[in-house]
Design goal:
heterodimer; A: alpha/beta; FAD/NAD(P)-binding domain; five-stranded parallel β-sheet; 28 helices; 41 strands; B: mainly beta; Rieske Iron-sulfur Protein; four-stranded antiparallel β-sheet; 10 strands; 38% strand; globular; disordered N terminus; binds siroheme; binds flavin-adenine dinucleotide; binds iron/sulfur cluster; binds FE2/S2 (inorganic) cluster
């Protein structure tokens, strides 16, 4: 029997779901070919905003990786735009000339972003927000840290604005209407939202009508109708979408706003289905995934032989995926004569709730600040429940309405079985609870893996966790704190606190007193404990070499072939004839295969044999060089620029200050590596504004920055404060380092610690609270007494000799 | 330079005192099959594995030893010291060697090592 040929045009979220369901219901029934204009696999488009803000990588949002296509025998043409459908011949043709014939065809071409045709809309630097290419273009533009103007204050526009702000841009949002997200929010909630957006340093201009975009080659400015001129290096148009129905039209299918489909999702040609944002069903088009997934289920069922499956659109709910802003809206909340409303405001807690009722039934809801009960209300809307009996207490939510105590899980417990928990994936309550009990699921990850709930946008994670709690009772530990590792249930902060509170001074004692589950820990907790003990009890604690990573154990960096690299300090990036000669001699003498300038302004000798390390160090020591700690969770480099010594723009002795800092800070162990830089003026040639700690010299003194990153994440620094003298700069930096040493979790870089505790808290403790700063400084100075001896020199003298020689050499005996 | 060894007899060879290896540590014995990592656990047990991670050949002797496992220094696979097999979701196994401790000294089975050379 020859298989039916199924061709899919577009590889977005909707057809992705069709295929998932189809392969479940009728495995192997179709030979599937997909054409996708985007040159990539299927991914979770709604998670582009976390990719933009840097919270996720593209790999993390892929829905079907390349392996999925291979496993399911699906042929995917990437970067292939279908340009024609020949319904008589039953073939589709791409722009590149590929032709495929079909028995059944699915059109899933999604939407196109609307572009307002103001003058200048085609300039370079004007982008829309729809796919990964847009995000990548935004991320590149954001590197300039210039100004971005986002046109459109709806869901997409706001997510883009917050993402660009996170990437360090100066962002303005223009919105035509008087309040933000007016299609999903009423005026009151719109204002609350505007305030929250503005609190993040984003400028919002409402009633803003864009007249023109200016620029010679690239965008330079946006002009509003009222004459306002906004400087712009990047303009994002996020003013709406329109169904992409062009292909349907060319093929002669019936088209309204979108490609028209019947309840079975078939177009006017029974062999052609349309799904997703390009489809128009019951006279409506859709722009959120939940209804698209319902459409997908119907097509999959039809293709699998169930001719009864029908699509009926239900109310949709909206959430904004911006961390820290909770808003939820569902149904119809416009004011009208025949409607009543119930409003609750709690200004102190920033909460606003509004319910809209018609004929004693809930038809719309808007929540700002506290959205925990959203699902319960959404369910009332969808079901059209008569709420007369609940009316008086309705607004307080299910826990009150049901008369049960105000337990956070009560709301979830009160939900009916068919209440939808995960809108993105259409997962209802009973599906989750059944999976938990029948498959003995224990954790959020388990539930995600088995039900897909909370696996897309993640905004229902809290609900899913409560559901697990309700189902498992005490057996579920929601792990509000992430345990350090599998050896303990305690988080990093608890362990640190208990080490101090109970005066615990050795690793075995930590494991005993804090009831470790393993006999001697693992490679995750042991290095962390070693650091915590070292930082807590300077001078007292005896470092446990066996709990250190190899690099820190042998004070060199292991390479992929098991050899090591050696990086001596070059204080502040300065070197001398003597040092360079010693390096040259060492390289020659030990046949070191590679010598390289590092990104940290010093020289790396790569490919040194382990047994040669002590001898190499001995020669370097003789020329006055010490370990550069290029391997350490500790002070790495202090980069500098030439400053007033040479540069015509230098305002202070940046090289000198850098050297002083490096000589003061070296040897210190920190939660993760620590890199500094000092630039002589705001031109910033030492790249101080992407370092853990950076100094920008200015005429009046020193601007101290911190919390930058330029590795896995790219982040500009935040300003800690300004000081007038070098001595103050050194004091502030040492105090900051000490605060980080005391609060940072192991392997948490300064920027992550800063994000966790808050820039303001750090500023307050270091800049405002002078006695506290002095105390931190003193503690740092004290701990440095025990850490500033060159580990290389110690090993040249014989310390840890066992590390560098073999236990025995049987090759010699074999030769006898 | 492999000599064909036909006898299957054990041939214990002394490679040094157990104390020469740090507790929860390892050292290397060079041999005709390559480096052999000899581990010493917190419980004073010793194990010998080929010093090559089944993943990408990382030197297991340089890893962190915990219980009867070692975490490879290159990409953190955890290898069982008794069997040489990767634990958890990773798959692969590195060769392990017979070892015994007598009067505080570590003995390796030279016949086994040489047979691997011949193989
Ligand atoms: C040698 C060097 C590359 C070079 O040839 O220039 C280098 C080499 C390594 N880097 Fe780096 N990084 C080097 C400068 C940088 C820089 C640039 C800088 O310091 O200005 C960065 C970005 C700045 C930053 O740290 O934010 C950098 C960000 C990273 C990261 C990402 C860290 C992060 O938290 O985002 C890693 C991975 C990690 O640490 O987990 C890493 C890890 C590594 C490791 C240790 C990878 C490893 O685990 O084996 C490499 C060791 C090679 C070796 O044995 O020497 N390296 N690395 C540079 C040594 C600088 C030095 O003199 O000490
Ligand atoms: C940044 C962002 C955030 C969002 N957030 C949310 C959210 O929080 N919640 C929510 O419910 N929804 C959200 N959405 C909307 C949601 O992503 C869409 O509703 C959904 O992805 C639409 O799926 P689709 O399959 O119809 O179309 P798409 O996912 O757009 O896929 C269409 C695909 O078809 C391809 N294509 C088009 N024409 C052709 C052709 N001629 N030949 C071949 N291929 C073609 C396109 O390249 C595209 O890859 C968001 C959207 C964006 C852009
Ligand atoms: S960028 Fe990657 S490959 Fe290059 S040195 Fe750093 S870690 Fe190694
Ligand atoms: S080589 Fe050991 S984990 Fe990769």
């Amino acid at each position: 029997m020859t298989k039916q040929k199924l061709v899919v045009i577009g590889n977005g979220m909707a057809p992705g779901r069709v295929l998932d369901r189809l392969f479940e219901a009728a495995p192997g029934a179709y030979d599937v070919t997909i054409f996708n204009a985007e040159p990539r696999v299927n991914y979770d488009r709604i998670m582009l905003s976390p990719v933009l803000s840097g919270e996720k990588s593209f790999e993390q949002i892929v829905i079907h990786g390349d392996g999925w296509y291979i496993k399911n025998g699906v042929t995917l043409y990437k970067g292939a735009t279908v340009t024609g459908i020949d319904r008589a011949a039953r073939t589709v043709t791409t722009a590149r000339g590929e032709v495929a014939s079909y028995d059944k065809l699915i059109v899933a071409t999604g939407s196109l972003p609307i572009i307002i045709p103001v003058p200048g809309h085609t300039l370079a630097g004007v982008l829309t927000y729809r796919d990964l290419d847009d995000v990548q273009a935004m991320l590149i533009a954001a590197k300039s840290r210039g100004k971005a103007v986002v046109i459109g204050g709806g869901l997409l526009g706001l997510e883009a604005a917050v993402g660009l702000k996170e990437q360090g841009m100066d962002v303005t949002v223009l919105h035509l209407m008087p309040t933000l997200m007016e299609r999903q929010l009423d005026t009151a909630a719109g204002h609350l939202l505007q305030r929250a957006i503005e609190e993040r340093g984003i400028r919002v201009i409402t009633k803003a009508n864009t007249k023109e975009i200016l620029g010679a080659k690239r965008v330079e400015a946006v002009i509003l109708e009222d004459g306002t001129r906004l400087h712009a290096d990047l303009v994002i148009m996020a003013v709406g979408i329109k169904p992409n129905a062009a292909l349907g039209k060319i093929a002669g299918l019936e088209v309204g706003r979108g490609i028209k489909v019947d309840a079975g999702m078939a177009t006017s040609d029974p062999d052609i289905y349309a799904v997703g944002e390009c489809a128009e069903a019951h006279g409506q088009t859709f722009g959120l995934v939940a209804p698209l997934y319902e459409m997908a289920n119907v097509i999959a069922a039809r293709l699998a032989g169930d001719q009864a499956a029908e699509f009926t659109p239900s109310a949709t709910a909206t959430k904004l995926k911006v961390t820290g802003i909770n808003l939820f809206s569902a149904g119809d909340f416009a004011e009208a004569k025949d409607r009543e409303e119930i409003v609750l405001r709690d200004a102190a807690r920033g909460i606003y709730k509004r319910l809209v009722l018609k004929d004693n039934r809930l038809i719309g809801a808007v929540f700002y600040g506290d959205t925990a009960d959203g699902a319960w209300f959404f369910d009332l809307i969808k079901k059209g429940t008569d709420v007369t009996a609940l009316r008086d207490t309705l607004i307080f939510g299910p826990s009150f309405a049901g008369g049960t105590p105000l337990d956070p899980t009560a709301a979830v417990a009160a939900l009916p079985d068919e209440a939808e928990i995960c809108g993105c994936n259409g997962v209802c309550k009973s599906k989750i609870t059944t999976a938990i009990t029948s498959l003995s699921l224990k954790s959020l990850d388990d539930v995600r893996a088995h039900t897909k709930a909370s696996a897309s946008c993640g905004s229902c994670t809290g609900l899913v966790e409560q559901l697990i709690k309700v189902t498992l009772g005490d057996a579920y530990n929601p792990a509000a704190v992430q345990p350090m590792c599998g050896c303990t249930g305690l988080g990093h902060d608890d362990v640190r606190r208990l080490i101090v509170a109970r005066s615990i001074k050795t690793i075995p004692d930590v494991m005993q007193v804090l009831e470790w589950k393993t006999s001697c820990g693992c490679a995750k907790c042991r290095p962390a404990l070693n650091y915590y003990l070292l930082a807590t009890w300077p001078g007292d604690y005896k470092d446990d070499n066996q709990s250190r990573y190899i690099n820190e154990r042998v004070h060199a960096n292991i390479q992929k072939d098991g050899t090591y690299s050696v990086v001596p300090r070059m204080w502040g990036g300065m070197t001398s004839v003597k040092e360079l000669r010693a390096i040259a001699d060492v390289v020659e003498k030990f046949n070191i295969p590679a010598v390289k300038c590092t990104g940290g302004q010093r020289i790396d000798m790569l490919g040194v044999k382990k047994e040669d390390l002590p001898a190499v160090w001995s020669d370097l020591n003789k020329a006055g060089m010490v370990s550069g700690a290029a391997y350490a969770k500790g002070l790495r480099t202090v980069k500098t620029c030439v400053g007033t010594d040479w540069c015509r723009f230098g305002t202070q002795d940046s090289t000198g200050l850098g050297i002083k800092l490096e000589k003061f800070l070296w040897g210190s162990w920190t939660p993760a590596k620590l890199k500094l830089a000092v630039s002589g003026c705001p031109r910033n040639c030492a790249e101080a504004t992407c370092k853990d700690i950076g100094v920008i010299c200015v005429d009046s003194g020193y601007d101290i920055h911190f919390g930058g990153a330029a590795g896995l994440d790219i982040k500009g620094t935040e300003v800690l404060g300004h000081v007038g003298t070098e001595d103050e700069a050194i004091e502030v930096i040492a105090a900051l380092t000490q605060l980080y040493r005391e609060q940072g979790r192991y392997l948490e870089r300064i920027y992550k610690w800063m994000k966790r505790v808050g820039v303001k808290t750090v500023q307050q403790q270091i800049m405002d609270d002078v006695p506290r700063r002095k105390a931190l400084y003193e503690r740092f100075v004290f701990s440095q007494k025990f850490s500033q001896s060159d580990p290389w020199a110690e090993r040249v003298k014989g310390k840890d000799a066992h590390e560098f020689g073999a236990l025995a050499d049987l090759t010699l005996e074999a030769a006898e | 330079m492999s000599k064909a060894i036909s006898k299957v007899k054990l041939q214990w060879v002394d490679v040094g005192p157990l104390d020469a290896i740090p507790i929860r540590g390892a050292r290397v014995v060079k041999s005709a099959v390559g480096c052999i990592a000899v581990f010493r656990t917190a419980e004073n047990q010793a194990f010998a594995l080929l010093d090559k991670c089944p993943h990408k050949g990382g030197p297991l002797s340089q890893g962190i030893v915990h219980d009867t496992g070692v975490t490879c220094p290159l990409h953190n696979w955890v290898i069982n010291l008794q069997t040489g097999a990767a634990l958890g979701a990773d798959e692969g196994q590195t060769a392990s060697f017979n070892l015994k401790i007598e009067k505080g000294r570590i003995l390796l089975d030279a016949a086994q090592i040489n047979s691997k050379v011949a193989a």
